[in-house]
């Protein structure tokens, strides 16, 4: 009985928190229509049709990419940037990445750039094999806390921010998104 109270109960609680944190917003993002919501603040609360909303600047950051080069968000002003917060252990994150790879391939010439920001504590040790397995064709970085500080806190992951060509956060998508949810917003922003 002592084993159960000192080992099993904390393990069950920890497991429950991990599952809940990964998909905390998944249920809400499926109910909202559209799932990609216009942004006036973090988290997004503005209506897509509210043209008077004031967009916030996307917090800048510089992190190391898999190849050792530095990625600085502000260097990509003039492009539509899809900033996806994810982790290798997150089921919904793993489900949306193939769509991101496909959209990146289709819209690269339109000035769309996906950037994956991993929250994995193990860092490149787990991210590198994941990227190879999923054939990720866009920059991946591992957060050192700067993205979390600038864009968080997050109630759950995945969390996706769409940044317009002027460096403003235009849309926020809490929870898992797919190609049908995100591509119309990207097409609209890329054509502006």
Individual helix count: 6
Helix content: 25-40%
Roughly what is the average pLDDT, rounded to an integer? 81
Rg, Å, rounded: 17 Å
Question: Main attributes?
Answer:
six-stranded mixed beta sheet, 192 residues
Structure description:
This protein is an alpha/beta fold and 192 residues long. It is built from 6 helices and 8 strands, in the order H-H-E-E-E-E-H-E-H-E-H-E-E-H. The protein has helices spanning 2-22, 26-31, 91-107, 124-134, 146-151, 179-191; strands at 37-38, 62-64, 70-72, 80-86, 112-118, 140-142, 159-163, 169-174. The strands form 2 sheets. Strands 1-8-7-4-5-6 form a 6-stranded mixed β-sheet. A two-stranded antiparallel ribbon has the order 2-3. Helix 3 links the parallel strand 4 (80-86) and strand 5 (112-118). The longest helix has 21 residues, at 2-22. The chain is globular, with a radius of gyration of 17 Å.
Question: Secondary-structure map with pairings?
Answer:
Elements: H1 2-22, H2 26-31, E1 37-38, E2 62-64, E3 70-72, E4 80-86, H3 91-107, E5 112-118, H4 124-134, E6 140-142, H5 146-151, E7 159-163, E8 169-174, H6 179-191
Parallel strand pairs: 4-5, 5-6
Antiparallel strand pairs: 1-8, 2-3, 4-7, 7-8
């Amino acid at each position: 009985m002592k084993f159960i109270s000192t080992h099993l109960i904390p393990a069950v609680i920890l497991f429950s928190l991990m599952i809940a944190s990964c998909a905390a917003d998944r249920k809400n993002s499926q109910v909202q229509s559209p799932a990609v919501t216009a942004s006036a603040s973090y988290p997004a609360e503005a209506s897509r049709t509210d043209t008077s909303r004031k967009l916030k600047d996307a917090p800048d950051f510089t992190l190391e990419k898999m190849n050792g080069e530095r990625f600085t968000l502000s260097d990509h002003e003039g492009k539509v940037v899809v900033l996806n917060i994810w982790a290798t252990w997150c089921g919904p994150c793993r489900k949306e990445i193939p769509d991101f790879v496909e959209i990146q391939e289709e819209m690269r010439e339109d000035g769309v750039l996906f950037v994956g920001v991993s929250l994995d504590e193990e860092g490149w040790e787990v991210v590198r094999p994941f990227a190879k397995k999923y054939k990720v064709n866009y920059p991946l970085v591992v957060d050192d806390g700067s993205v979390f500080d600038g864009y968080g806190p997050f109630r759950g992951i995945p969390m996706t921010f769409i940044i317009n060509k002027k460096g403003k956060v235009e849309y926020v998508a809490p929870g898992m998104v797919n190609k049908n949810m995100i591509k119309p917003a990207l097409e609209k922003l890329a054509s502006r």
